[in-house]
Amino acid sequence: MTLNIIGCGRLGKTLARLWHTHGLIKIQGIVNRGLPSALRATDFIGAGRPCRLQELPPADLTMIATGDAVIGDCAVQLAEAGILRPGDIVFHCSGALDADILSVVRQNHALLASCHPVKSFADPAHAVASFAGTYCGIEGDPQATERLASLFETIGGVPLPLRPGCKPLYHASMVMAANYLVTLMACSLSCLEQSGLPSATARKVMEPLVRSTLDNIFALGPADALTGPIARRDVQTVEHHLRALRNWQPDQEVLYRLLGEFTLDLARSRTCAPPLQEMAMEHLLKTGNRLP
């Protein structure tokens, strides 16, 4: 089986090296923006040759591992290059885009897919060594996803079949879990620092709390892992929090209330308080004020 790569950056060269060292695929053309980066990719992979997109040879697989903004343009150029054959597979590795972004290559009777490894590729050498067990969201034409799933499984990947049209929602979940957790921690730590703790101490204080919370989420599920004043419907404590945040950083008070409304919904999936207590908490989170 042969592979061409368009956009052989950190993700592309990680996957190519894994497939090459496992003897699964013959790496052919590598298309990058410049020759130096293409040469670095071939050195890391141990195979392949730099070329322009128009110079790519025919291949069973073409992986587009560029940034999201140019995937569609690359597909157009690939279709116009005249190298695709019926049954060839073209796939991209974006987390947010569906395989349909490649639909122009259907005119060449190629098959489409996308496969997104849920992993950081900041250090390709480390990514190669630790790839086993990586979940890979995959969707597209059934014949293409079947072949790609087998290739990813052979290097230790765990394919996750996705519903058509759901890639943006899938990727949003990753952003909320990873990126927004960092933002939420920054807000939390700033509250501790405003309380008088040095930055390093604030992180030390928070670490065991956050780690145990994450452990409980994955062991018990979100609803059973939830604790704290909203779970208890402790209106007085939440009111104190809102007043303090409003006086210091009004934007954080707004964030607290918005997340609090979602937290209250989660708490209600597990337990319900007396009606007046539920109403009082809901009103406080919506308005920032107690019930009249």
Automatic annotation (TrEMBL):
<dbReference type="InterPro" id="IPR019665">
    <property type="entry name" value="OxRdtase/DH_put_Rossmann_dom"/>
</dbReference>
<dbReference type="InterPro" id="IPR008927">
    <property type="entry name" value="6-PGluconate_DH-like_C_sf"/>
</dbReference>
<feature type="domain" description="DUF2520">
    <location>
        <begin position="134"/>
        <end position="261"/>
    </location>
</feature>
<protein>
    <recommendedName>
        <fullName>DUF2520 domain-containing protein</fullName>
    </recommendedName>
</protein>
<dbReference type="InterPro" id="IPR036291">
    <property type="entry name" value="NAD(P)-bd_dom_sf"/>
</dbReference>
<dbReference type="Pfam" id="PF10727">
    <property type="entry name" value="Rossmann-like"/>
</dbReference>
<dbReference type="Pfam" id="PF10728">
    <property type="entry name" value="DUF2520"/>
</dbReference>
<feature type="domain" description="Putative oxidoreductase/dehydrogenase Rossmann-like">
    <location>
        <begin position="3"/>
        <end position="117"/>
    </location>
</feature>
<dbReference type="InterPro" id="IPR018931">
    <property type="entry name" value="DUF2520"/>
</dbReference>
<dbReference type="InterPro" id="IPR037108">
    <property type="entry name" value="TM1727-like_C_sf"/>
</dbReference>
